[in-house]
Amino acid sequence: MKKDTVVELKKPEVIAEDPLMEVLRRGAREMLKCALEAEVEEFLARFDEIRDSSGKRLVIRNGYKRERTIQTGIGDIPVMAPRVADRRKDESRIRFSSSILPPYLRRTKSIEELLPWLYLKGVSTGDFSEALAALLGKDAPGLSASTISRLKDAWSEELKEWHQRSLRGKEYVYLWVDGIHFGARMEDASQCMLVVIGATKHGVKELLTIVDGYRESEQSWLEALNDLKRRGLTKAPRVAVGDGALGFWKALPQVYGDTRWQRCWMHKTGNVLDKLPKSIQARAKDNLHQIWMAETKEMAEKAFDHFIQSYEAKYPKAAECLAKDREVLLTFYDFPAEHWLHLRTTNPIESTFATVRLRTAKTRGMLTRDTMLTMVFKLSMSAQKRWRRLNRPERLGELIQGIKFVNGIKQEEAA
């Protein structure tokens, strides 16, 4: 784009010299120096007994490496890393590598994470220089549009490696699945992202796979599930939670035949209400709420019957939409009550991908398959760090042991 076709941003005022920031940088430099000195002294102490015939130490200090600058959130900090020499000539020689300041580090981890965050949250590559100058100072080097292009290539490679990672020995008790459609234009309008999140036996939620599919078809889901099994996920999850419109339900028995089904109440509620006049949707929603919030399965069955009897005469499509999934809407009653909150909806996916949709909606032009997958992957992995652990995770171990639950209570406790 020619320079005269864009409006140039003013230089952010925050790049002016700030005396307080200078004090902080000096303090950070001294702290880093002390940490490095302590690290090298601890390293030398471990090899103090290695000496020559005259008693002189063979693993010793050897001055400092050339000064280099580390980019941090409070500006550039110059640092000189200590060096260590091992005077032995044989193969037993050791090398010192700082865990605090790796040899090729040029930016702190927080800065490395800042770059994808800015891009994926909606800052275009053309605006990067101004945004980073405001955050890091006017002399922030190497943070240009070309940097982001290189990062995108690196993210693509990271995604390929992640898709090939081994799942051998892993066990996921619950799965949440969904097909995500985005506002951005794709190469093929029928494309969507197939997402699977799993809960480990320790109650930690993990992103298992994210691949592009065709209209959430049975074949697309079959390929995704078979890939998980191929990479080592051989133990069938106890239950899978998903929307009723997915080809997933046709594919699931072909790969994990013992996994039970739980339809998402959030999606089902929306589907039922869509078949009712707006004037009665609020009351109908309250009646649906009484089903999945019932204390026992028996009470839920009664509330279910009440809804069908109340609406089937005038609104048969709404009643039929609910009734056809009766059994798989109430599966969660056979699992720990502490987990009902997690099992009744696909919220772990919905809440995460609300952010992803927001970013892709800002994207101009048409997205390629690789670009969309990479973008969604990076945002999802970032969101995963904030996913909440399941309530009472020890209950998952009890499920693995084969303990039965009735109305959310262990049978032995109910007795």
Overall description:
The chain is of the alpha/beta class. It has three domains: 1-105, no CATH class; 107-164; 172-398. It contains 16 helices and 13 strands. The strands form five sheets. The chain has a five-stranded mixed β-sheet, sandwiched between helices. The chain has a two-stranded antiparallel sheet with strand order 1-4. Helix 5 (218-230) packs parallel to helix 6 and helix 7 (265-273) runs antiparallel to helix 10.
Helix/strand layout:
Blueprint: H1 19-46, E1 59-64, E2 68-72, E3 75-79, E4 82-86, H2 109-120, H3 128-136, H4 145-163, E5 172-180, E6 185-186, E7 191-200, E8 205-214, H5 218-230, E9 239-242, H6 248-255, E10 260-263, H7 265-273, H8 278-292, H9 297-311, H10 316-323, H11 326-329, H12 340-343, H13 347-361, E11 366-367, H14 369-384, H15 394-400, E12 405-406, E13 409-410, H16 411-414
Helix pairs in contact: 4-14, 5-6, 7-10, 8-9, 9-10, 13-14
